[in-house]
């Protein structure tokens, strides 16, 4: 079911929309953690270290998939809010074609350069073979990860956060089952974990794609949509490319951190792998849920409801707090119990490493949660320069601190780079949000002025067909910066009355003169 996020009480609409996304994010993280948990518990400490050592490199591929998800979702959300179904269909087919091409290229590059990168990272020799096996199989299935992320971005843009959840829950349960089969029944070792992920992600991506195209065919569209549009691809890349660059740079930063950690040996790598999985579980879940806020902001900005979009920011901050507080307490007060999901008691060095990480980083989850929500609104408004600046500042500070503090404080110096980087970048995100540049900038003014003019012309035509001419004296304003798009001829007269003041120049547009 497609959902219009521009109608209803903002709190109820946003919570109901984001709740399935949250459940989906939790299952997605369980999905990602399953390999590490079974590796540590069934195959041993070295297997966990092998999976963990390959993880930072796989995040580069995940970054591309996540960027495509965001770019597609932001543009499709806006088109859905405008009721522009022709461009919406064209945009989806465009991003699917682009995904297939880019996915094939990246798969070839990954398979060709994977070993060289792992050697540069000084991966311990006793885990190298298993790490490469896992990495190569994962990269081979990357195209399915990319397809799945694009499809879930489309569903979220249409206001449907439940359909991807159904696929993900089914796939997650199947993945855990196959993990156990391929390690305990059919003893394939680390390769079995990778093949289980490959199979489940492949099936989820293909079924999700077929369902998505079936949903799009039901949208009303009088004119045939083109299969490919360079204009819409450019719009999506405007959002996706900065996100991909940002995420890839973050991944490269994580690779540098992994290089430092690798120097401490396999046991420390295993402990770090367990702790970073717990950290990623929460941070990625919050980031995924923030995609719901991005869609909420994009739809409402596209429909001309600026106040409603701003209201969503504060609701998002509340959601973030509700998510991070329980995990902050859990990780801080019971670190050994959480790490025991991955590690046996006999892995003393690995456990000590994980405990030291969880003693330093979790108390600052509320800080990064706030940053993620501010960034979500900036992204929904397509203010990507601000978004990138805030995020890359976090990375630069974190990586620099890792190299500066490691010689002085040892491994704990690396851990302290997380909270310090989060603190600085959150302040920057907050300043960029409250400055209002994301809706006051010249580019934003021009973009939404054009949309206002287009929408006004559509409203005028609909009104003339259904209600006849209106007097020039009628006027009014929406509570945002662009008028809502007319969704049917039946409400054309009402929309004309609301927008006539702007078309005649009698009432100045609030956004254009903010």
What do you see in this structure?
This protein is mainly α. 81% of the residues lie in helices and 0% in strands. It has helices at 10-43, 45-82, 85-120, 125-140, 142-157, 163-185, 190-216, 230-262, 266-302, 306-333, 335-339, 348-360, 365-380, 384-409, 411-434, 437-440, 442-466, 492-504. Helix 4 packs parallel to helix 7.
Gyration radius from CA atoms, angstroms: 24 Å
Share of residues in strands: under 5%
Structural class by sheet pairing and helices: mainly alpha
The helix/strand order is HHHHHHHHHHHHHHHHHH
- Poorly predicted runs are 451-514
Count of helices? 18
N-to-C terminal Cα separation, in Å? 36 Å
Please estimate the helix content. over 70%
Average pLDDT, rounded to a whole number, is: 79
Largest sheet: none
Shape: globular
Task: Give the total of beta strands.
Answer: 0
Question: Could you provide a short overview of the structure?
Answer:
The chain has 514 residues and is mostly helical. The protein is 81% helix and 0% strand.
